From TrEMBL, chain A:
This is Gluconate 2-dehydrogenase subunit 3 family protein. The lineage of its organism: Bacteria, Bacillati, Bacillota, Bacilli, Bacillales. It comes from the Bacteria. Pfam families: Gluconate_2-dh3. It comes from Brevibacillus parabrevis.
Automatic annotation (TrEMBL), chain B:
This is Glucose dehydrogenase. Residues 32-63 form the FAD dependent oxidoreductase domain. The keyword Disulfide bond does not apply. Residues 101-305 form the Glucose-methanol-choline oxidoreductase N-terminal domain. Keywords: FAD, Flavoprotein, Oxidoreductase.
Length: 199, 545
């Protein structure tokens, strides 16, 4: 995985004592995600975790668990989805249909469930769905494959890039209140920021 | 439900008002003015009208935020600052709503806006006359200039001593921001190399202490709500001042219908914690932004006004405009760290005015724009201009270089088109109100304009030493839907925001825009609101509305 992590020694969470209380609570909770789900069925949650793992190219269980828990929470929540394209099912329904569609596609192409496929074959299934060139048309009559893929990728990426472990991977400075930044210009860093030479 | 006359005089509402639901009312009988929406326009109006001694009630659908308790340095959780209720989207280029352009709660969009604070140019008010496209406004730049002056002074806008484009050349009331972020520095250097003039952005963000508030600490989370209160918002400026002047501001109150008595508005119906209430008023001002204001008008149809209120022209909901707001992300050999500093600290309006040889009318602003991981990864994964997706190993490896990326953003003029519209869908929300449908498709001029801009952004990125790698298709801001004009057959309100059809109904905010310009809109939203306030105070004193 560590193809080129630029800041191997950096851990953004080490700075959490310098964050305001509210932010610390929000980010801290991501390190201990719920494993019980409110909307997803156990089999759906497992399948979703396998898909998410391919989408973000990461196998760390604590991160994947958080992403799935976050998506589940949004599916159970009464808060709206900001916008929905005319003709696309509601998010709850889109996920239910879409996850079933992934399984159907996996069976149609490889004759077994998604979770049992090799990484390469899993990618192949998702590639077909992302391009809308599915083999198993019938599974996608009520929800277009591309619409599902876009929503799924969007939700996955938003949650994944909110995890402090991932922030550390990419060298993101993370929460910055109350201290802010003093050295913002080219080539300058404040002492707590990620350093490429790993100090 | 809209034509149900019984609902128009609900006794339940009177009972509900006196029930123990925690809603303490100051002007329960009748107010002089009821303002719907406590956003950029609603805040200015509430303050100005209360200061003039009028009895003002503001009804706001969202919460009364406490920045210290409710905000956080976090992208994902702060999406709650947006209007997240589902809206249906349609057209060839369906809009991304929510956090991208709609606020909810006291302060409205200003709570999570970026704070770039520009004036429109003279040409923006007369695109039909100047370029044969769009429509002329019923006012000129010079009608609005004193109000731009007033608003900029009142909120201590920081900006350069000299601003090289448009009629206003500076200086701004507060000193220019210094230092600027690496991304902004690189952008300015790149522009320099190409002979493109650039400036440090004028911002509704403090460069020095003002009114008990501190200067910006370069935290970079303007789009998540400013915790130190360095950035202007209606939440921390106009609304508290309005309350101090006697205005009543009720949060968590969603207006569902405008009430009529004959040919005049008599008040509004609103829902608070599941109960319906009424607010009667001599004048009602709708300041609920581009989607909700037309939705309310259309939903309040009566037998006298079957097409919806203020809609004899048929223009309610029509000609909505976003800005085209494509991004170019480029990879540099050095660290840029897009998370640091106020997101926009440099911009150019070099491409602002029409140049015939470019093959399209009107123009745009380009800004150096910061970005945080959720924003950047989400955009390059799912909003690519080429309509492909980026995921798996490619996405992960791109994001491992997050700190090496620079970003430039477009604010491009989109011309008004009647097919781009807010209408009511057949689906209903939990208040029984029809869910709005928002239809948008770029037209040919719009596409040529943003393609030109992408070319220039790529050029500047290269001059910055970067390799343009990701072009993101995005929009920003919303305007129009209840446009102003002199001709009652072609517009919804007059130059002061007064309905052509119903004299005591006003509309304020971005929905009255006739064209979109190539500038961020909020300075114009607030200046127009201040102008409406002046007019209304005069009219109400003379009992003329
Ligand atoms: C991410 C982002 C960045 C931005 N950056 C900039 C920038 O840098 N510069 C700039 O100039 N502009 C920027 N904007 C745009 C700016 O926020 C808007 O132009 C401005 O807020 C519009 O003002 P308004 O008064 O028309 O509406 P709003 O400020 O949106 O206020 C409308 C209010 O009405 C309330 N409301 C709606 N319906 C009802 C109802 N039925 N009952 C009660 N209340 C209701 C809403 O909850 C909201 O609070 C940005 C916007 C966003 C979202
Ligand atoms: S960058 Fe400045 S204005 Fe923006 S949120 Fe931070 S302190 Fe507030």
């Amino acid at each position: 995985m560590a193809k080129h992590r630029r800041y191997p020694a950096y851990d953004v969470w080490e700075e959490h004592a310098n964050w305001d209380v509210h932010t610390r609570q929000i980010v801290g909770a991501r390190k201990m995600p719920q494993v019980a789900h409110s909307y997803l069925l156990p089999a759906e949650a497992l399948l979703l975790q396998a898909i998410v793992s391919v989408l973000v190219d990461d196998h760390r269980l604590e991160v994947l668990t958080f992403v799935v828990a976050h998506i589940d929470e949004s599916l159970a929540s009464p808060v709206g989805e900001s916008q929905r394209k005319v003709g696309v099912p509601e998010k709850k329904q889109l996920y239910r249909l879409g996850l079933a569609g992934v399984e159907a596609e996996s069976h149609a192409e490889f004759g077994c469930e998604f979770g049992a496929l090799s990484a390469g074959d899993q990618e192949q299934v998702l590639k077909r769905i992302s391009g809308g060139s599915v083999k198993e048309q019938e599974a996608w009559t009520h929800a277009a494959a591309v619409d599902f893929f876009k929503k799924l990728l969007h939700d996955t990426v938003q949650a994944y890039y909110s995890h402090p472990l991932v922030w550390s991977d990419i060298g993101y400075g993370g929460p910055a209140y109350p201290r802010g930044y003093v050295r913002v210009e080219k080539g300058l860093t404040d002492p707590w920021e990620a350093k490429a030479n790993g100090e | 439900m809209a034509n149900n006359d019984e609902k128009r005089h609900p006794n339940e509402a009177d009972r509900a008002r006196s029930s123990q639901d925690g809603l303490v009312r100051k002007y329960a009988e009748e107010a002089d003015v009821c303002i719907v929406g406590a956003g950029a326009a609603g805040g200015v109006l509430a303050y100005e009208l209360a200061k003039a001694g009028l009895r003002v009630v503001v009804l706001e659908a969202g919460p009364f935020w406490d920045p210290q308790r409710d905000f956080a340095s976090d992208e994902l959780s702060m999406q709650r600052l947006a209007w997240q209720e589902t809206r249906l989207v349609a057209g060839n280029d369906p809009l991304r709503l929510g956090h991208n352009n709609s606020g909810r709660g006291i302060g409205g969009g200003t709570v999570h806006f970026t704070g770039v604070f520009l004036r429109f140019h003279e040409s923006d008010f007369m695109t039909r006359t100047a370029d044969g496209v769009g429509e002329d406004w019923p006012i000129t730049y010079h009608d609005l200039a004193p109000y731009y002056d007033k608003i900029e002074r009142e909120i201590a806008v920081s900006g350069p001593h000299h601003f090289p484009w448009g009629a206003f050349q500076g200086p701004y009331p507060y000193p220019v921001r210094e230092p600027i972020s690496a991304n902004a520095q690189l952008f300015r250097e790149g522009c320099d190399k190409l002979g493109i003039e650039s400036v440090v952005a004028p911002l509704a963000i403090l460069s020095a202490p003002f009114d008990g508030r501190p200067p910006c600490i370069n935290r970079g989370f303007c789009n998540q709500g400013c915790m130190p209160n360095a950035k202007y918002s209606g939440l921390i400026h106009h609304i508290p001042k309005a309350i101090a002047e006697g205005a009543e501001v009720l949060s968590d109150c969603t207006v569902t219908e405008i009430l009529m008595a004959g040919d005049r508005v008599s008040g509004v119906l609103f829902s608070h914690q599941g109960l319906m209430h009424r607010q009667m008023a001599r004048v009602v001002i709708l300041a609920g932004f581009v989607v909700e204001t037309p939705r309310l008008l259309l939903n309040s149809a009566t037998s006298r006004f079957p097409q919806g209120l203020a809609n004899s022209s048929g223009w309610v909901g029509k000609a909505i405009m976003p800005h085209s707001s494509h991004d170019v992300y480029g990879r540099l050999p050095e660290e840029v760290r897009l998370y640091k500093g106020t997101p926009v600290l440099a911009l150019t309006q070099h491409f602002y005015e029409t140049e015939r040889e470019r093959g399209f009318a009107r123009g745009y602003t380009l800004s150096a724009h910061g970005s945080r991981p959720v924003g950047m990864a989400g955009a390059i994964a799912t909003e690519r201009e080429d309509k492909t997706f980026l995921w798996g190993k490619q996405l992960r490896e791109t994001m491992l270089d997050y700190n090496m990326y620079a970003r430039i953003t477009l604010v491009g003029e989109v011309l008004p088109h009647p097919d781009n519209a807010v209408t009511l869908s057949g689906e209903k929300d939990e208040n029984g109100m029809p869910i709005p449908k928002v239809t948008f498709s770029y037209q040919e001029n719009d596409r040529k304009l943003y393609q030109h801009a992408i070319g220039q952004m790529n050029r500047i990125m290269e001059a910055m030493g970067g390799k343009p790698e990701h072009v993101v298709s995005d929009t920003a801001h919303l305007m129009g839907g209840c446009r102003m004009g002199n001709n009652p057959e072609q517009s919804v309100v007059n130059e002061f925001g007064q309905s052509h059809d119903i004299p005591n109904l006003f509309i304020a905010g971005a929905s009255t825009f006739v064209t979109s310009s190539g500038s961020n809109p909020t300075n114009t939203v607030m200046a127009l609101a201040a102008r409406t306030a002046d007019k209304l105070i005069e009219a109400m004193q003379q009992r003329d509305v």
